[in-house]
Specification:
Layout (H helix, E strand, L loop, with lengths): L7 H14 L3 H8 L4 E9 L4 E14 L8 E10 L5
Antiparallel strand pairs: 1-2, 2-3
Helix pairs in contact: 1-2
């Protein structure tokens, strides 16, 4: 299956990450289609095991290397509002 669709494994991995951080189905579809998606709200960070609020953020997938375009990465740009940090 992955031989027929070489990017499928990476796109499924990005789809799982989108769901893990809390993106809606519509936002995930937009990101996976390669379009830039703007959003605000709460995101979950599996690395820090907590939620963060954002007022203006963007997400987009791009080739990891513009030269080879062999794999994709999910790029998040966020203005994170940190509340309650001690």
């Amino acid at each position: 299956m992955y031989d027929l669709f070489p990017k499928l494994r990476e796109l499924l991995s990005i789809e799982r990450m989108c769901r893990l951080v809390g993106f809606s189905d519509d936002l995930t579809k937009r990101i996976l289609s390669g379009r830039k998606a703007e959003f605000k709200g709460c995101l979950y960070s599996p690395e820090y095991k907590q939620k963060f609020s954002t007022e203006h953020s963007t997400a987009q997938i791009k080739p990891e290397s513009l030269i080879t375009q062999e794999s994709y990465v999910l790029l998040l740009t966020a203005l994170i509002l940190l509340n309650g940090f001690d």
